[in-house]
Amino acid sequence: MVTKRDLVYGKLASMPGLKLPSQPPSGAFYLLPDVGSFYGSKSAQGASLEDSTSFCVALLAETGVALVPGDAFGAPTCVRISYATSVADLELACDRLGEFLATAVKPPRPAPPPRP
What we know:
Layout: H1 4-13, E1 30-31, E2 41-42, E3 48-49, H2 52-63, E4 68-69, E5 79-82, H3 87-103
Antiparallel strand pairs: 1-5, 2-3, 4-5
Helix pairs in contact: 1-3
């Protein structure tokens, strides 16, 4: 039987750019994935993703998914995802998070100056 924790951990592990611990937590009801690789990006609707707070605000505004910034837990590049809800809600939230991440765009790096 797949637990809610394993369901969410598996879905998050398949999302490019998210960093997870090598093993899911054994006694918690939440995960703290690292979303720092998305800092400096823009969401599909143009919100700047500069820290965990701006990430969570944009995610909520654009997808209706509420996560908690990791700053409150001493993890400034992470977000807190609770899996203490229904399987249907978890699947929907993970799908929306995956779409949000897939459409985040990093600005192009400036071209290096031409060599003399």
